[in-house]
Amino acid sequence: MGIRKLTRFKVKVMLDGKEIEVDVHPINTIQKQLYQIYIPIDSKPYRIHMQINEEGAFRIALKDQVPQNIAQLESVLEEAIINS
Length: 84
Fold this sequence. Notes:
It is a single chain. This protein is of the alpha+beta class. It is 17% helix and 43% strand. Strands 1-2-3-4-5 form a 5-stranded antiparallel beta sheet.
C-alpha cells in the first residue's frame, strides 16, 4: 500500500451567519502539519495558516492578528483538517 498524498480540499463553514466554502491547502503533501486556508471575504480570499502544535492540535498561526470572526472558525477548521 502506497503513501496517500494530501491534497487540497474545500469545506463549508458558517461565518457571520452565512455558509461559505473555504479552500484548504496542505503545505506538506505527506504529513498533516501546516495548511494555508483561504476564506472568501468580500469576494477576495483572506489567507490564514494553521499548524500543528506540540499537543497535536491544529491552531491558527498568529491568531492575535486574525479578525475575531475568522479566529472563531479554528475548531471547525481543525476538525476538517483532521478528518481530511
